[in-house]
Inverse folding.
């Protein structure tokens, strides 16, 4: 089985999230950094839980729970993968490379 | 016509059926476009307090040595350096990043320590101090 990254949420007490309508502010207490999150980042944070899951499962949950605007089927994986890596690089989601 | 499954806003269709509660719309964007802007804390109103912040190498209480690439390794790993007995100030690190050695270190030790500092992650001691060195000066 090819190894692919799996993602989970970071600990719930780290982020203070505030919905500002057009985007969301997320204050990371650990670093003191405030991240301004545009779609689809807040949805990805909502989807992830304690269990690490892979890209396909995350895309399915997105499609299940949200009306996705502005993409063709072929692009969803690429877009979600890019956003997840961006969030992981910022420490906003946990990434585990198996 | 009431729908027993209604739990929120719904729309009656002309033919009498009601739709599900509408899901939130999410704009996907494109892969190449970032969705996050990060605002670092305003750590200092004056240059002085930024440069006096301190960075331990490595974080206290780990008991690990510093390899030449800055990673933490078991004590007495060949080629690795012991923890610095003293913390370095932001000013000292700034000068070292510009070519001088960290005070009290050999050139190789200074490089190892700097590589450790460059690898600091949010949550580790000294991260915020190091991050503040990289903020553009106005």
């Amino acid at each position: 089985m090819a190894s692919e990254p799996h993602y989970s949420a970071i600990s719930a007490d780290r982020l203070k999230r505030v919905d500002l309508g057009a985007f969301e502010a997320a204050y990371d207490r650990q670093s003191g950094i405030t991240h301004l999150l545009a779609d689809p980042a807040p949805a990805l944070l909502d989807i992830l839980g304690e269990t690490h899951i892979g890209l396909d499962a995350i895309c399915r949950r997105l499609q299940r729970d949200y009306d996705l605007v502005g993409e063709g089927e072929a692009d969803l994986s690429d877009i979600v993968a890019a956003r997840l890596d961006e969030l992981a690089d910022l420490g906003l989601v946990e990434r585990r490379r198996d | 016509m009431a729908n027993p499954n209604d739990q929120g806003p719904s729309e009656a269709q002309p033919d009498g059926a009601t739709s599900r509660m509408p899901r939130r719309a999410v704009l996907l964007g494109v892969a190449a476009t970032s969705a996050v802007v990060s605002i670092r804390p305003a750590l200092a109103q004056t240059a002085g307090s930024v440069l006096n912040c301190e960075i331990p190498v490595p974080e206290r209480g780990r008991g690990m040595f510093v390899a030449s690439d800055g990673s933490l390794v078991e004590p007495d790993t060949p080629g690795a350096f012991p923890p610095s007995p003293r913390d370095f100030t932001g000013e000292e690190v700034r000068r070292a990043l510009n070519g001088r050695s960290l005070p009290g270190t050999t050139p190789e030790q200074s490089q190892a320590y700097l590589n450790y500092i460059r690898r600091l992650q949010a949550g580790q001691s000294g991260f915020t101090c190091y991050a503040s060195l990289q903020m553009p000066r106005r």
